[in-house]
Amino acid sequence: MGGVTTGAWIAIAAALAVLLVVLVVGSLLYRRRRISLKAPDTPQVTTAEKDRSGSYRADGGFNFSQGSTATAPPREVVPEPVLPEPVPEPTITPEPEVVAPPEPEKAPAPEKAPEKEPQKPTAPPEPVTYEPVVSPEVEPEPEVAPTPEPEPAPAAPALDVIAPTEGRLDRLRGRLSRSQSAVGKSLLGLLGGGDLDEDSWEEVEDTLLIADLGSATTTKIVTSLREQMASRSVRTEADARALLREVLVSELRPELDRSIRALPHDDHPAVLLVVGVNGTGKTTTTGKLARVLVADGRRVLLGAADTFRAAAADQLQTWAERVGAEVVRGKEAADPAAVAFDAVAKGIDNGVDVVLIDTAGRLHTKTGLMDELGKVKRVIEKKASVDDVLLVLDATIGQNGLAQARVFAEVVDITGVVLTKLDGTAKGGIVFQVQHELGVPVKLVGLGEGADDLAPFEPGAFVDALLG
Ligand SMILES: Nc1nc2c(ncn2[C@@H]2O[C@H](COP(=O)(O)OP(=O)(O)OP(=O)(O)O)[C@@H](O)[C@H]2O)c(=O)[nH]1
């Protein structure tokens, strides 16, 4: 009996040992699985946070750069008053009102639109901090007491989906079809036949002039084409296309810097002034540009310094609300310089990346314009340097547009041109003339009334669109 009992005990001990081993191994495996499940949750740094310095190129065309630091603003020495509404200059009577954005939780932007600010509390004027806040997707720890309901966000209007910023000029090339028939098809038809007689050369010249290339550019292009045709054999339409492309692209000076100087500086936002005669598409262009910047993860503030027409500020506010940008606007007929000043000040306080100022362009008298624009620029520069001055020109008004451009160029240092309404004209050649006359690159082109019908200007893609 005693022997049997010992055997039984040994068997029981062995069984217990096996059970223990199974429990230990099982527990280890279970813990390993838990750890591996949690692992992917950890990284939480958004690309937007990493993307705050250095120059970058938005995918496929819109090219942004930082304005020269050589013209860095004289930092204001006046201590910041604690008063709610700082008055920039005694002569100015501003009362600008800041319209808070409908909470920029970024549009479900295409591709890489980063969420720069996850959720802002309702208290408005707090500057945004970029601390890696635990996002709502992170698994809550079971032991932690349930946190109070996140306060319901104010009913924000739905934000727009912004069309991809890449390949815009290619996608919108069909909009140049009127110029394509007038310039591209005619020229290819004439040159494709090989040797040209004098009448045909005259026709080439007329085609270029009618398409608004201007006499100086036309003469240069015709001379260059004649030389090239004489020195190399052009027999087919393909040969003619290659030659034309080469000559036209080179005339558009592809080496010019067409980047939009919209990258922020270390301690203040980039500031862009949008100028031009009313009706050319200034406000629309400012709104379209804001969308491009928002799509690329920038925080944008729009300043409605076109206080001449009340509807212009409403229009700009609507553009801003559609993409969650901030707006600073003044009362009707407020001093544009005061509104511009306040917009830049607010942009600095709120830590935005770019401030875009839409100005009024009443071309009543040159002195009036000079006074107004000069003052806007001067007053802004008490706070920050102006990085880019974009002149908006309506491509459909040809020579009149050039006359306007000359006046603006005398009044303010233009650093880039936006040619709007190129979709509505057969005279796409105005691009050549504007650059030639002003010596300033065309940086952007407007190709329709749609919110995303703005494209970066690229000489090669533009000429390809003209030649079809
Ligand atoms: N077809 C076409 N229309 C455009 C383009 N850009 C602007 N527009 C239209 O031009 C008109 C005038 O545009 P606005 O942006 O109001 O012009 P503005 O220069 O700001 O003029 P004010 O608002 O009076 O200061 C609007 O109907 C726009 O939709 C473009 O590239 N193509």
UniProtKB/TrEMBL annotation:
GO biological process entries: SRP-dependent cotranslational protein targeting to membrane
Q: Give residue ranges for domain SRP54-type proteins GTP-binding.
A: 441-454
Q: Which reaction does it catalyse?
A: GTP + H2O = GDP + phosphate + H(+)
- Where, subcellularly, is it found? Cell membrane; Cytoplasm
Q: Which UniProt keywords apply?
A: Cell membrane, Cytoplasm, GTP-binding, Hydrolase, Membrane, Nucleotide-binding, Receptor, Transmembrane, Transmembrane helix
Q: Basic and acidic residues: which segments have biased composition?
A: 103-119
- Compositional bias annotation for Pro residues: 81-93, 143-155
Which residues are GTP-binding? 276-283, 358-362, 420-423
Q: Its Gene Ontology molecular function terms?
A: GTP binding; GTPase activity; signal recognition particle binding
Low complexity bias locations: 128-137
Naming one, the record's GO cellular component terms include: cytoplasm
Question: Where do the record's region annotations for Disordered lie?
Answer: 41-158
Protein family: Belongs to the GTP-binding SRP family. FtsY subfamily.
Role noted for this protein: Involved in targeting and insertion of nascent membrane proteins into the cytoplasmic membrane. Acts as a receptor for the complex formed by the signal recognition particle (SRP) and the ribosome-nascent chain (RNC).
Task: Please describe the quaternary structure of this protein.
Answer: Part of the signal recognition particle protein translocation system, which is composed of SRP and FtsY.
Name of the protein in question: Signal recognition particle receptor FtsY
What organism does this protein naturally occur in?
Rhodococcus koreensis
User: Which gene specifies this protein's sequence?
Assistant: ftsY
